[in-house]
## 1
Amino acid sequence: MYPPSKITSKYIALFLLFALLLVLPFRSFIANLLVAFSSQRLIATQNSSKTIEELEKKNLILSLAIKKSQTVAEENENLRKALAFKEDKKIDIVGVEIASFDPSAWRRLAIINAGKDKGLRDGMFAVDSEGFLVGKIVEVKNNFARLMLVDDPEFSLAVYIGKDALGMLSGGLDAVKIQYIDMNDNVNLNDIVWFKMPLISYPIYIGRVRKINENKNGLFLDVEVKLFSQNPLLKKIFIIK
Amino acid sequence: MTEKNLKALSALLIFFLLDVTKPFAYSLATEFTFLGIVLVAMNYPLKTSLILAIIFGYLKDAACMDMGNFNLLEFSAIVTLIHYCLRNFHKKAVKVLLFFGVLVAHIAINNFQINKASYFFSLLFFIHSSVIFLLINRLFTEWLILGLKNDNVI
């Protein structure tokens, strides 16, 4: 037992340390320290891989352009007329690397080695070298940013399924699901899940429909998605600006 | 700082780095720092384990986003609870039951925190963490005993 009478000065000192850590704002300093540590680790390979990064960037833009041309062929005349009023923004990509991960197993967050210094902003999307969605930026600091991966429990994004069905993609540790899809929508297994960024007409592919459950008591379908980009650790990541 | 304390500190530092770098990506559903804190709490006196829990809880909070002081409070509570139980219950199975109890509580708290019940992931986390704990417990205890033996020889 630990009755109050046994509390020594050591424990009082411990309690004070505990209270001090609760109050003092050291946290951003430690986060910066972690990023600096990882950046040192990455800096050696950075110089040699710059050329490769440039080539990968070009390759990614080309593969996105091919996907765009495939989608354009399927678009109907009315949609094309509607889009003609908007001018396409020139796509700009920044190659980044993952410096570290969120230590919690219950979140899917990564720290990338670029921040405001490379022009990153909240809400920008990250794709892998094949152009598949990896996640979106949720916090930007001067020299690093936090990336929320697609399967994080708090991730959400409006997406298309197949040709015209619309739904809300929400991440999860068990499965990535799409919510609010009407029972009457034409959704089939292996349909492509994708989304379109504002002002950029390239479709960004996310995954395929893996499972469809009809909820008898509900109004919407329950759709599970198999992501195209499964392991961000092994791939170079690009941020679409 | 004694050799025994230094060993605990270095082991926890390695566990923390494993959590941050995730060499097994997301295929291994476990938290090494959490397991390390439980291990240290079971093998070290209250003062040492509480200091380490505070340091690593704070470090984990600094590396996490939107967590407040969640890990600092959780680790300190775990250490205090484990020491309380170890002082009041002396049967052999206490450590095993304590570990599973703390693990289940950790899973429940985290599910509550993310506002989503992830049943399959929770089961995976339970299995992976149990196996990893078994492994590190054995290795860590052997490492400690080896150090004590060497001390005796000298």
## 2
Amino acid sequence: MQLYEKTAGELHDMLRKKDCSASEAVESLIERIDAVEGKVHAYLTKTPELARETAKKVDERLAAGEELSPLAGIPIAIKDNICTKGVRTTCASKMLENFVPPYSATVVHKLEHAGTPVLGKLNLDEFAMGSSCENSHFQNTANPHDLGRVPGGSSGGSAAALAAGECTLALGSDTGGSIRQPASYCGVVGLKPTYGSVSRYGLVAFASSLDQIGPMGRSVEDVALLYEAIRGMDERDLTSAQREYEPLHGQLDGGVRGMRLGVPEEYFGPGVEDEVKEAVRAQIGELERSGAVIVPVSLPSTGYALSAYYIISSAEASSNLARYDGVKYGYRSENGSSLEELYLNTRSEGFGDEVKRRIMLGTFVLSSGYFDAYYKRAKILQGRIGQEFASAFDACDAILTPTAPDTAFRFGEHTADPLKMYASDICTVTVNIAGLPAVSVPCGKDKNGLPIGMQIIGRKFSEKTILTVAKAVETLRGGYHSLPQIG
Amino acid sequence: MSKTDYEMVVGLEVHAELSTDTKIYCSCKNSFGSEVNSNCCEVCTGMPGTLPTLNRKVVDYAIKMGHALHCKINNVCKQDRKNYFYPDLPKAYQISQFDIPLCEHGYVDVILDEECHQKRIGVTRIHIEEDAGKLIHDDSFSGSLVDFNRCGVPLIEIVSEPDLRSPQEAKAYLDTIRSILQYLDISDCKMQEGSIRCDVNVSVRKCGSGEFGTRCEMKNVNSFSGAMRAIEYEANRQIEVLESGGTITQETRRWDDHRGQNFLLRSKEDAQDYRYFPEPDLLTIVVPEERVQQLREEIPELPGEKLLRYVKDFGLPYFDANLLCESGEKRALFEEIAAKGGIDLKAAANWLNGDITRILNEKNKTLAESSLSADKLIGMISMIEQGTISNTAAKTVLEEMFWQDKEPSEIVEERGLGQINDDSALQAIVGDVLQKNEKVVMDYKNGKTNALGFLVGQCMRATKGQGNPAALRELLLKQLG
Amino acid sequence: MKIDIEKIARLAKLKIEPDKRGMFETQMEQIVAMVENLPEMSERYVGVDPENPMRLREDEVRPSMRRDELLQNAPKVQAGCVVVPRTVE
């Protein structure tokens, strides 16, 4: 087994025992990227020199006998909507093609502090709007399980890089399922943390009240490890929560015996493919046999969640993306001489179609005469969805659903029909609307050998519970699986 | 019909920059006149991924203003985004407050004239928001330059009810708002630096009509006197339109103070759709009740009440009281003198508004930098009242004790400024003066009574200003028969 | 529901090319039709959540960003300022 195939936990043990150096780990990853990136196209920017430099420092500290943080020397890659000082941050948009932030996101500072070598920046749907990475201005990222298929999105670059062994850990962001759905499509683990547990400072905003940065990895323990490193109150993000967090890494082996696991029928409707439903139900059966108590729960407003999600997220996006006007940074159109023309041409040339659709939808629902009918009602529904979850959690400790209604689809399959693409989010958006944590963990494969993910939803700040369930699923499935053959 | 058949209805929106140390949503310095783009960071220039953090002091200051204007304080409130594109607004939205302002439903009593007639003006709301940057236009250059220094400077917007009925009332209201801001020490109120600005809403209606006419809003009103001109102009414009059979349409107009005219900026149809919605990067503002009360207790006596007290309790004329009330230092010193008492307060006010102000202005100094104290001034004025020194001598005493740590009595003694009250000494001087001015004496006897003043002056000169003028006058009259 | 694409695009400062107009119009109508699927609700929207109050920042000055860093991404800079086409004044 090569170093690039190892989990973060394994690498950390090896580093501690001096079975390998951080530099060797980083070199292994860089070689792997060189070998497969031509097929996967996960990276928008590679930073091998930065990674080598960080690894070297870690090795020096190791040699000096210093105690290392669990993430020291573990190669990571970062979704390209998270700001990295001195390294361009594009959001996969022509608009920010040459944007080099003069500041770093809080999570990036935390990684720096931990001594985590950063391999580069990963592809996404433009401004994180999409479910396939096909909305990237620069490139399509391929699913390592089938290069003719999408990796999901918007954190498709993160999921694909992990599945292809092009990084050991990855950061993604999730507004309506953008960590969980690609994790499901690529057979990796992805956690959308409780809203407010991870600082959003430096995450390029899509929908501020729903966005959350989250950890992705090939194992549940890895995801826990990365989550522990990035969570916590940040004085620069007033929506980040001030609270004590419990340790997670190495604390997830409690199993599901006696745990009450809720299953909402609303998530197993006709919009979900049979193979997905079967795989998830089969896994639920396994958990029951392991001692979990399966309880039916009801989340009646689920059918309206997609509407509320698209109204709220697009409204916020229309405002968040208004700043890209060609004045202060980013793309500026060469066409036109007046201020009005500068605005119109810059924004029309700089944004892709999906971003334009969302901006227009958001502008419409906020515009005079429509605000009450759309935005206000969506916010009321948001409150209702939160209450339904709260009641459900009176009866259970975690809720189990499919992560996505389907498995990875072919390039171009949904691009002509935005609504079909939006439907990819039906199982995931409720979690963002209610601000809850949820993890996607692989639970099976379809007839084409494509991964299927199970979503485990918890109460606010109950990451430990849902990761414990996820670890139980992972263990039942025989632990962490080897990388797929690429190509 | 004529102009006098109409009544104007005016409402004002005052924007005041708050004098906090930092900006409203980031820790950059809040200061005027710095080098361009030097007080900026990624937050106030709206770079991707950055988030606002609300300055506690902005909330405190706004609540204080709310208390001063008798508002209901919404201690649970939120902020909203006002969306529009302009190069001086880097995020393309202004963080403001829409449907739940921090303060609302207040009023202020405005003193309208020297007889201290008052009028109560309703205050609709006070909300907090961020200022925009500045555009620099230079004729040598075809484009415009953007300086982001002012982005994120904290503002409060104070919206009045349409209760004002004349440019004079508007001016009195604006002056009152400004002096309250100064009394609370929450804004510099420097018009020339743009730290206080106003938008004006004007409509007209037939006198006696209970309904409001259609109003027009005027932007770019940069001074209080400009506001008076702008209101007068706009009311006349509307009356002319109505008199010539036209109707007023709701629109926004731009005041040009140089030309003394306003111009259409946009009509109602082009009204901006600001698409307000709650700012998702900030949570609910919750100010504990105790804090709201504590801030109420920090409100000092406000200018209106103080002025009325000076007029009523101390018998000061309106003009003098008003002058005193305008300066924090002078009114503090005056209050101290009043508290100690023993002298005529009108005299104290005269000295403060007169010579003391003159000396400070000449030297460009503040009272704090001087050596003046309530005790020194009381000492000096008592000596005048007791006839120990003349007014002229007192001026010398004042000059000397202004910057030096000396008591007035010390100065009088050192410099021999004591007034001559001794009749026999004065008698000799009077005799001497009459002898030397025979022609003037003749004039007096031929009916030129003002010659007496000249003779008193001559006597004062002979005593080097130390003679008691009243006593000299008496003696002169006796001699002249 | 008919959507006034022109008006929305103008508000959003987007220019819709004539050849894409039809597509956007149809898609927007479909999307709006989808999001209109909301139930009747009697609850009131308040917009504030006093249970979750915001921390406030202390009024303490911190260093600003160096101007060269601040403007390093600006498309056009002159005299320490960002340049835009002349605004009406």
